[in-house]
Every structure is written in structure tokens, then in C-alpha cells.
Write a structure and sequence with these properties.
With 358 residues, this protein is α/β, with parallel strands linked by helices. The protein is built from twelve helices and twelve strands. The strands form three sheets. Strands 2-8-7-6-5-3-4 form a seven-stranded mixed β-sheet, with helices on both faces. It has a three-stranded antiparallel β-sheet with strand order 9-12-11, covered by helices on one side. The protein has a two-stranded parallel sheet with strand order 1-10. Helix 7 links the parallel strand 6 and strand 7. The longest helix has 24 residues.
């Protein structure tokens, strides 16, 4: 007799998500966590006030339609409310995108390495990941991705700027790519790091969505807006896709606290933008510092830098940990280092210099 319950065989092939480790204490040092691409700034006081007020009604279910945030996003981006779908962070919406497009055995094309959640949500749906290696400069190889499309392809994910490597996809390159993709294949432009992207040729994702009915724009409040702990993201898509996303959404998934904070944050983005600019300036300083040390760090338009360390990755992560600095290692490939407090960035440069000179 088998005493164990029968679980899906698909789970055997699902990789576990590895979150950034918390900062470990080191005697005599302030520990810093730069492993999770979090915004190092605390919430704005005005946003905290709104969340505190919303907490007073947490005994009630939230608005399942997320009406206030949907309306605010529609107004902010000049799109119909019927083109907006929300979820528990962009990962939640991404899961719903796979759910509404893929039957078991269908294919999802994306660059690799890219966002660690992609292979997880694809595998859980019983779909097949088609991973197209990034270029030597850690960029999307869009021609190879277009060539990887088959009659089983249902979804394509384009992460720009790319997590964890940093480079962005240009508007011209993305439009050329979309011209080569069948119009019945849904293409997701994942812009989790949109606000940090200052490239002159950055993709105008909303303009592209308006020109291509098979395009979805995926965004989050976790990064620039500093609401990672509240889990709220959204998609802008044409009405048939947005309607399907709302149908697939977890009922009451976006809490009233998250909705209230997101609406408030949209209203004070001029204040948040000051913080974003400061992080972008720090990014430039760290990138320049690492390159001066001789590290072949690729361009980045996100709130992190990618250090292609290869087999030295875990040793570097350990050296950082000894100095009270937690980075996100990808064994055998490299380490992603979030732009954090100035002191954390200074320490990253110090550890990197010592490691290179060892």
C-alpha cells in the first residue's frame, strides 16, 4: 500500500526559486542586503499614512476588481480601464499570462539567463521553456529568439532591462523582432525595472502595445515605488487578453493595503523620482568603479549590476559575506549586486577590488 499522496510529476522538473538571502551580521560592521533588487529607501511618509488608514479595515475583503488602482493606472498611462489587469506583483500577473496562453506541451520562449521565475511558472503550467542564450554582452539575442519560435510557441517573454544581467532592449530592435513574430503569439514586455531605464533608445513599450495587438506590458510597484512587501503589479494589454487575465486572477489577491499604497504612490511619483535618480547616479558610480578595477561588467539600465564571475562566483559571494554584504550569486555564472545605500555600494567596490587583487 502506498501511503504517500500522488502529486504531479511536473513538480519533479520545477526549479525552486532562490530568494536573496538576508544580510548576515558581522561584528563591527553594518550588514547590507543587496541580493534582492529592493529599493533601499523606506516608504514615503504620505504613503505610510495611507497604508495605516487602510489597515483599519483589514477585517474586510478588498475590492476584487481593484477599481481605484485600475482607474488610476488607466488615467496615468492613457489607456482604457478594460486594458488593465492587476495581480500580486508582476510575478502573479506573469503566472496568469502563462495560464491563459499555455496548454501542457506548449512552448514559452525567453532569453537565458533572465528572470528566475520564468522557468518555474512555465513548468508549473506543464508548458516547455525554450531558453535562448543571451549574447556575450549579456543582451537578448532577438534574432535567435525569433528563430526559436515554432507552431507550439504560445508566449514570448522579453525582460527589459534584463534581470539579472542589466542590459535593455531598444525600441527599434523590439519592433523589428515583433515584425518577425506570428501575430497569434503573445509577447510580454516585462518592465519591472522601467523607471531606472535612462537609455535614449529604450523601448516605448506602451507605444508598441498600441501598435501590436499581441503585446502585453508587464510592470510592478515592487522596485522603484518601494512596495515590494505589499505585492502589487499590473499588465496593460488589449481587451481580450486583459479580460482573460482578470478571469484567471486569484480572487481578492491584491489587498486593500497594497491597492491604497499603489494609488498613493502614483500620486507622489515626483517625490519617488528623486530617489530613483539618486539610485541611477549611484549605479553609474558603481559601474564605473568596477570597470576601472578591470571587471567586464555589462551595461545596465536596472537598479543592479551583473558581475560575470564564472567559477569564482561563490567565492566572491563568500568574500562579500565576510564583509557584511549579501549579494545574489548564480553559481558558475555571476553575481547580481543591487544598488543600495551609498555605504553598501562603497563596500561592494572595496570587496571587488580586494577580490580582484587576491
Amino acid at each position: 500500500m502506498n501511503d504517500g499522496v500522488r502529486l504531479r510529476k511536473t513538480l519533479d522538473g520545477v526549479p525552486a526559486y532562490k530568494p536573496g538571502k538576508p544580510a548576515a551580521p558581522v561584528e563591527g560592521l553594518t550588514a547590507y542586503k543587496i541580493s534582492s533588487n529592493e529599493n533601499p529607501y523606506p516608504p514615503l511618509p504620505s504613503v505610510l499614512d495611507v497604508v495605516a488608514e487602510a489597515a483599519g479595515t483589514m477585517n474586510r475583503y478588498p475590492d476584487m476588481a481593484v477599481t481605484r488602482l485600475t482607474a488610476a493606472l488607466a488615467e496615468r498611462w492613457d489607456v482604457p480601464t478594460t486594458h488593465v489587469a492587476t495581480g500580486t506583483g508582476s510575478v502573479g500577473v506573469l503566472t496568469h499570462l502563462v495560464t491563459i496562453t499555455c496548454e501542457p506541451g506548449d512552448e514559452v520562449v525567453y532569453a537565458w539567463r533572465s528572470f528566475e521565475a520564468y522557468p518555474i511558472v512555465v513548468a508549473l503550467a506543464g508548458a516547455v521553456s525554450v531558453q535562448v542564450p543571451v549574447t556575450d554582452t549579456a543582451e537578448h539575442d532577438l534574432r535567435a529568439m525569433a528563430a526559436a519560435v515554432t507552431d507550439r510557441t504560445r508566449l514570448i517573454l522579453v525582460c527589459t532591462p534584463n534581470n539579472p544581467t542589466g542590459p535593455h532592449v531598444s525600441d527599434a530592435a523590439l519592433r523589428e523582432f515583433l515584425d518577425a513574430v506570428p501575430r497569434d503569439v503573445l509577447v510580454v514586455i516585462d518592465e519591472a525595472y522601467l523607471e531606472f531605464n535612462t537609455a535614449a533608445d529604450a523601448a516605448d513599450a506602451l507605444g508598441i502595445y498600441r501598435d501590436f495587438p499581441n503585446v502585453v506590458v508587464l510592470r510592478t510597484f515592487s522596485k522603484a515605488y518601494g512596495l515590494a512587501g505589499l505585492r502589487v503589479g499590473y499588465a496593460i494589454a488589449h481587451e481580450d487578453v486583459a479580460t482573460a487575465l482578470r478571469k484567471a486572477a486569484t480572487p481578492f489577491g491584491v489587498s486593500d493595503l497594497a491597492e491604497s499604497a499603489a494609488v498613493a504612490s502614483l500620486g507622489v511619483f515626483d517625490e519617488l523620482e528623486v530617489r530613483v535618480k539618486a539610485l541611477v547616479d549611484e549605479r553609474g558610480r558603481v559601474l564605473a568603479g568596477l570597470r576601472e578595477q578591470g571587471w567586464p561588467v555589462p551595461d545596465t539600465q536596472a537598479n543592479f549590476v551583473w558581475m560575470p564571475l564564472g567559477e569564482d562566483t561563490l567565492d566572491f559571494a563568500a568574500a562579500c559575506q565576510e564583509r557584511g554584504l549579501t549579494v545574489r550569486p548564480f553559481p558558475g555564472e555571476g553575481a547580481r549586486c543591487t544598488i543600495g545605500e551609498t555605504e553598501a555600494n562603497d563596500r561592494l567596490l572595496e570587496v571587488a577590488a580586494a577580490f580582484r587583487d587576491r
